[in-house]
């Protein structure tokens, strides 16, 4: 035993000697091979940390920027910044904070700390304008050193260090540019940026956005900001290699308890399908099924009841629908304005201004174009009537629309009452129920609980409410006939219009982020997981009628449905 102890002591001594003889090796990596080296190190489980010794950087000029004395940061924002600057160096990585918790201010404080040229990348032109205003609000910096680069604003960069705010689509655009944009982009590529702030960093793994960080720009430090570090295509892990690890993530319920974000009540309202609608649902195509369960008359009535209830309380309500056909029908029935891709910018601003000031209405209907590009901090109620399959990120983004801090209300027992409400209306026994449970997973992981309201008419006075839309059988039959007359081509055109509007809001050259012209048809690599509704694409049958027999059968089904609606046997 004594010999074994001696051998063990000698072995440990040799290990200590080996450790003391370790040397630090320094070598330069070809910039074009950096991503390849990072990927390889990740494969062999040698994680790399990207740090920037900005205090000793004499090669890049200083940016004259300071945080205004009246600008105060909260303790959790300070903790996030300590993770980034804890060792007197700027560490690349990702900070996760819920919507309304001050991600923008964290980015601005980081820029004030590094004091080098800063590039901010956003996912829409609206976000660019918001960042621009926030920089001027919170920081002491000459206005000439803060520049916007979008399809509508192409100002020349300051000759010295400056702050440039642009979009992923504008920087990553690969098509032909105007002379003005080409010269400005050349200046952006030639400069070395001390700090790149990636707003809504969960979009970064897309190939276009990776181009922004590799071939188009050179930077010393990358800071990603997001509220929802999730993607349905499994590419979130790529962010560790491209940007850095997650540096800080705030606890949503902790911030809620401390009053930094609103206290939200989440509810899932189950709505029975009427027999007529459900009968058509069972034999309809996938596209028509989505319209049928979105325009379920019982869902209409539940939506109108909840809208009236919260309007009487003095709340401001956003009604979301990804289905444009349903959105327009709801707007007509509820007599409230709606915003979708075809609505002009002037009309959109008019509606939003009236909503904010509490004019003629306190409820507004919005399609998926409002998921990221519309800021309505006054809203405290959201009602979802149709959503994008199983997208967890969209669910969290919509909840974020009502998370900004609001006045607390006390209950009879002295406890805090909810001051924000999030409703998801689901048609029972349809595919919508499956997608809803998948969408809620991210919020459940954050600690939120969804209360299921099985029958709203039994738990409230909805059954006796007067004037609710589509309460009679005849009104429901008329609505069904209208739905059945909707062509799949028109539905597809509406969806394409929405997608084009979202791409245009990304601020690419001449308003778009993709290549100009073309037929509007593109090919992309995908997976069965994405096509099932998990990603940004889905399976769509352009001509499901494979034979004359199938076409004749569908025609007879429509004729029978119209006969039932008309009251004929």
TrEMBL record:
**PROSITE patterns, alphabetically?**
HELICASE_ATP_BIND_1, HELICASE_CTER
Major site of localization recorded for this protein = nucleus
Domain Helicase ATP-binding span(s) in chain numbering: 84-247
Q: What is its EC number?
A: 5.6.2.4
Compartments (UniProt record): Nucleus
The entry's keywords = ATP-binding, DNA damage, DNA repair, DNA-binding, Helicase, Hydrolase, Isomerase, Nucleotide-binding, Nucleus
Top class in the EC scheme: isomerase
User: Pfam families per the record?
Assistant: ERCC3_RAD25_C, ResIII
Which SUPFAM superfamilies is this protein grouped with? P-loop containing nucleoside triphosphate hydrolases (SSF52540)
A biological-process GO annotation: nucleotide-excision repair
Record-linked InterPro entries: ATP-dep_DNA_Helicase, ERCC3_RAD25_C, Helicase/UvrB_N, Helicase_ATP-bd, Helicase_C-like, P-loop_NTPase, XPB/Ssl2
Q: Residues in domain Helicase C-terminal?
A: 301-468
Give residue spans, biased composition: Basic and acidic residues: 538-555
Catalytically driven reaction(s): ATP + H2O = ADP + phosphate + H(+); Couples ATP hydrolysis with the unwinding of duplex DNA by translocating in the 3'-5' direction
Quick one: a GO cellular component term?
transcription preinitiation complex
Please give the residue ranges the record annotates as the region Disordered.
486-569
- One Gene Ontology term of the molecular function aspect: 3'-5' DNA helicase activity
* Gly residues compositional bias, start-end: 508-520
Task: Report the sequence similarity comment from the record.
Answer: Belongs to the helicase family. RAD25/XPB subfamily.
What name does UniProt use for this protein?
Answer: DNA 3'-5' helicase
């Amino acid at each position: 035993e004594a010999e074994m102890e001696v051998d063990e002591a000698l072995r440990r001594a040799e290990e200590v000697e080996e450790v003391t003889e370790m040397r630090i090796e320094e070598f330069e990596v070809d910039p074009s091979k950096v991503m390849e080296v990072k990927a390889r190190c990740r494969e062999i489980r040698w994680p790399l940390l990207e740090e920037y010794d900005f205090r000793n950087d004499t090669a890049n000029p200083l940016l004259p920027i300071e945080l205004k004395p009246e600008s105060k940061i909260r303790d959790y924002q300070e903790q996030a910044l300590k993770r980034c600057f804890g060792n007197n160096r700027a560490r690349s990585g990702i900070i996760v904070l819920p919507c309304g918790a001050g991600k923008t201010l964290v980015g601005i404080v980081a820029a004030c700390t590094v004091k080098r040229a800063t590039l901010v990348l956003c996912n829409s032109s609206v976000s660019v304008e918001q960042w621009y205003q926030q920089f001027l609000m919170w920081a002491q910096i000459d206005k000439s050193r803060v520049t916007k680069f979008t399809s509508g604003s192409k100002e020349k960069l300051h000759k010295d260090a400056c702050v440039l705010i642009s979009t992923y689509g504008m920087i990553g655009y690969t098509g032909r540019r105007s002379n003005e944009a080409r010269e400005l982009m050349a200046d952006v590529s030639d400069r070395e940026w001390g700090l790149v702030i990636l707003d809504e960093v969960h979009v970064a793994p897309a190939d276009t956005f990776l181009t922004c960080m590799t071939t188009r720009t050179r930077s010393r430090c990358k800071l990603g900001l997001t509220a929802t570090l999730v993607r349905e295509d499994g590419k979130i892990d790529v962010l560790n290699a491209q940007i850095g690890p997650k540096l800080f993530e705030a606890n949503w319920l902790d911030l809620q308890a401390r009053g930094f974000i609103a206290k939200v009540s989440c509810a899932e309202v189950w709505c029975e399908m009427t027999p007529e609608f459900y009968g058509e649902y069972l034999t309809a195509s996938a596209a028509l099924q989505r319209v049928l369960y979105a325009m379920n008359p019982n869902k209409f009535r539940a939506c109108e009841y909840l809208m009236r209830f919260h309007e009487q309380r003095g709340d401001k309500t956003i009604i979301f629908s990804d289905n444009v056909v349903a959105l327009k029908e709801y707007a007509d029935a509820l007599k409230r304005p709606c915003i979708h891709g075809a609505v002009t910018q002037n009309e959109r601003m008019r509606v939003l201004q009236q909503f904010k000031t509490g004019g003629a209405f306190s409820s507004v209907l919005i399609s998926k174009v409002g998921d990221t590009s519309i800021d309505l901090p006054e809203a405290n109620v959201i009602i979802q009537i149709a959503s994008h399959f199983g997208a967890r990120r969209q669910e969290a983004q919509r909840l974020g629309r009502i998370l900004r801090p609001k006045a607390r209300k006390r209950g009879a027992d002295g406890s805090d009452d909810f001051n924000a409400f999030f409703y998801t209306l689901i048609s029972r026994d349809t595919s919508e129920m499956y997608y809803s449970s998948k969408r809620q997973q991210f919020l459940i992981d954050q600690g939120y609980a969804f209360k299921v309201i099985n029958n709203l008419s039994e738990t409230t006075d909805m059954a006796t409410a007067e004037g609710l839309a589509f309460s009679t059988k005849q009104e429901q039959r008329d609505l069904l006939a209208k739905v059945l007359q909707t062509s799949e081509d028109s539905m597809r055109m509406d969806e394409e219009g929405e997608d084009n509007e979202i791409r245009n809001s990304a601020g690419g050259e001449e308003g778009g982020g993709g290549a100009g012209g073309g037929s509007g048809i593109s090919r992309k690599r995908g997976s069965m997981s994405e096509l099932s509704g998990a990603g940004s694409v889905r399976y769509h049958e352009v001509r499901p009628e494979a034979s004359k027999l199938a076409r004749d059968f569908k025609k007879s089904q429509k004729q029978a449905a119209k006969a039932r609606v008309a009251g004929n046997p």
